[in-house]
Model the fold of this input.
Amino acid sequence: MQAALYIREKKKQQRLRKGRRRFELPSHVATKEIAPFPPYPPNNWHLTVLEND
Done:
């Protein structure tokens, strides 16, 4: 029982230390800029159609 309480306390301290560096955000919030989607249809489609014939 003592070991379980000790481990729980250490994990709590680690979370608190980690939380100081950045705000606690939910997993669905993006922290980096997301690149835009590529153009559709791709410009090289006409090349692949000609090569497959």
User: Anything to note?
Assistant: The radius of gyration is 25 Å. The CA atoms of residues 12 and 40 lie 48 Å apart. The chain has a mean pLDDT of 78. DSSP finds two helices and no strands in the chain.
